[in-house]
Each structure stands twice: as C-alpha cells, then as structure tokens.
Amino acid sequence: MFVCGPTVQDYLHLGHGRTYVFYDVLARLLTHMGYKVNFIMNITDVDDKVVEAAGRANRDFWVFVDHYTRAFIQDMKALGVTTVRRYERASGYIQEMLFQISSLIEKGHAYVSEGDVYFDVSSYPYYGQLSKQGMSELMLRPIEMSSKKRSQVDFALWRSMPPEGCDPCWDSPWGKGRPGWHIEDTAITVSNFGPQYDIHGGGYELVYPHHEAEIAQAESFTGVRPFVRYWVHTGMLTVGGKKMSKSEGNLIYLKDGLRKYGVNTLRWYFMKTHYRSDVSFDEKDVELCAGEVEDLISRASKIRERVHRRLKPDITSEVASRFREALTRDLDTPRALASLKRLAADSSNRKPGLYLNQVCRLVLAAEEILGL
C-alpha cells in the first residue's frame, strides 16, 4: 500500500491528519484480518513550493527540509499512526527517476523540449480513465500552460533550471534541473513494489492530474496493467466551505489540535464521517466527540474488569457482526463506531459469561483496529 505523503514546506494540519488516520485504520484492519501490509508513504522534499518556502524563511534548503520532515514524523507518531513501514523521501530516488524518464523517451512516451522533458499523453490511450474524463474534457483542464509542450495536457517529467535558481538541482542528460512532481511517486513505488501493487491512496483532489499521471508513467514504463489494483481516495476537511490548506490560509496545525483535544478525540472525530465524504470543521463537533470517546473508553475499561480471563482480540463472533460488516463494507467507520457505542452501553449490566467475553474480545480488537 502506498499513500501520498506531505510536501514538507510546513507543519501538518488537521486535514492531513484526517487523511492519514483513515489509511492507518485501513492498514490496521487488513493486518487484523491476516494480511501482511507493506505500507509506504512518500515525503515530497523536492518541489518548487518547498524551494520557495525555504527562500521566504531565509534558510538553507536542506536544513529547512530536514526540520519539517522530522516534524512530520513526530506528528504522525503523536497521532497514533503506527502502520507506515517506511517513509521514503523523493530526493533519495533521483537516479531511478532519471532512469524511468530516459526509458519513457526511448519508448516514445516522452520528449525533450528546450531542456525540459514532457510525457506525451497522446502516446497513452488510457489517460483519463481514473478521473472518468475523455480527451476533449481534459483539454479544457490544462495542467500548466507552456509553449514548450506539444499539447497542454502533457505534463513535466523533468524541468531545466537556470544557474541562479538551481538549488537544489541535479545533473541529467538534458541539463541541470529538478524532477516533475508525478515521476517522484512512480520512482518510489516501482522501486519498492515492482510494476504492480494493491492499494494507492490520497485525497480525491489528487485523482487528476497526479494519479492519472502516475498511472500513465508507470504503465508506459513497465508495460504492466493495471499499475494499481485499488485506488482509494479520501474527502477533504474544509473550513468555511474551503479546503483546509496553506494556500487558503485557514490552517489548524495538527500538533495544536493534538495538544488541545488529545489523540483519541481527534481520531474519533476523523472517523465519525465516512472517509469519502468532505467534513466541515466545527469545534463543537470535536468537543462532542471528546465526550463520546471518553464514555466509550470508560465503559470498555469496566467490561474488561468484569471479564476475569485473558482474551484475544476478535471480530468474528455474532456479537461483533455489525462492527465487522461496517468496516468490511468500504470501511464505514461511522457505522462501526455507532455499533460499538450501542454494544458497550448494552453490556454495562451484563453478567460475566460467553456474551460478555465476546464483547470484551470485540473491544480489544476495536482498540487495535481504530487505534484508540
């Protein structure tokens, strides 16, 4: 499983947190079900946005990047995201990117233009399938306007850099420059997973052009289809109808949210809405979640105290059926949380026995899967 990680130009915000909690829960569920999950997340540390942010901060580029990379990993640990096996920085895959770009040129899927290299979308007949767009629709959504491109839907694989703006940059067959955004993820995933893997995730705003571009690059490079078996996209966290983002200036940093509300409350809040739906941030909703999760944890603790046996986590019993069905049907965490609350309340006055044992085993499993 691969999930698009952050561009390390600032601290994580709550919108990032919501996305990463979902994939953490997905990986936890798959692990509980017996799958071996190799979960990798990239770190975009080579990007014009990062270069510009470091310049505005008047800091050395690599010192700036290292600072926010460390902060990102610390925030993920504080959020209870424990399932990511490796964080891979894009800057560690430059040679793989150069190899893939050269191969795409040789195969007729890319072309050089004035020191830049572009992917020729017309060479790949499946472009637009993920986002369900035809070429006529894509032509109305050019990625970036440039006279260097044969078509405005073509996207950059490599950008040449002038000497005065070449920090950082790397040597290439086409001159000094930096990689395009899309090729970074393809280099990481093909290097680690090979030509095909199971799950790719990220926010739904990445479907086009980012994920469309990844598919086109990878399948043209390897000749294997499909590149990814399952694409799983999350909705956005909004504030006042706008996506929470640095560009909108409406950030609430994750570290501040954790400090104010605590990890259990934030995870519960993120899971209260289905992962594919947008969430409009409301502080009152978060405060309500604090009471709900505190009540559940208290009830769960009392259930464990009344079961005088060491039990293993389990969601296969009839008692756990609603919780299990909710999670295994498109990871419906709102329904799963609701079933867990009802079951915990119903079990408050139950006498020790088989039923309470099954409830206890579900509670133990829920703690593992939900990360509470």
Automatic annotation (TrEMBL):
Its cofactor is Zn(2+). One of its GO terms (biological process) is cysteinyl-tRNA aminoacylation. GO terms for molecular function: ATP binding; cysteine-tRNA ligase activity; metal ion binding. Its EC number is 6.1.1.16. It comes from the Archaea. GO terms for cellular component: cytoplasm. It is an enzyme of class 6 (ligase). Pfam families: tRNA-synt_1e. InterPro entries: Cys-tRNA-ligase, Cys-tRNA/MSH_ligase, Rossmann-like_a/b/a_fold, tRNA-synt_1_cat_dom. The keyword Kinase does not apply. Keywords: Aminoacyl-tRNA synthetase, ATP-binding, Ligase, Metal-binding, Nucleotide-binding, Protein biosynthesis, Zinc. The keyword Heme does not apply. Residues 1-287 form the tRNA synthetases class I catalytic domain. This is Cysteine--tRNA ligase.
